[in-house]
Input
Amino acid sequence: MHISQKCSIAVHCLIFINEYGAGNRVTSQLLGLSTGCNPVTVRGILSALKKAGIIAVRGGAGGATLARPLGEITLYGVCQAVEPDCLEKLVGVHGSPSPLCPVGRNIGQVLDTTYGRLREDVADSLRRVTMAQIVDEYHAALARGGAPASL
Output
């Protein structure tokens, strides 16, 4: 069980856009270099973030900017934008238990309530984390390790 790498890549992109978007044209190519991902993958993530209203992408010359203040962007919103079924993947029942077995026949129903509560607890926790908090953690890491490199 884990939170998808798409969510981590999206958070990485959002931090980068916040830090460098004002003075630079932030493109999928540039974000691909920073994240170590293929720019096509980054474009898919940016598209999902744009559709969710988290970022804006300028046409023509391109470039991404934040569409909302960091304090209004939650980790839940980011995860839901890039992977809407992330909570089901995080806490889910295996796909093909045997219908011939009493346990297999009933395991989904047995775990639905418990797993539903777990998913809601995780969702609540993700809603409490904002990109402002994550960027603050990034800045604290920079302060411990030195100044960021310029682009």
Remarks:
- The chain has a mean pLDDT of 90.
- The first helix runs from residue 5 to 20.
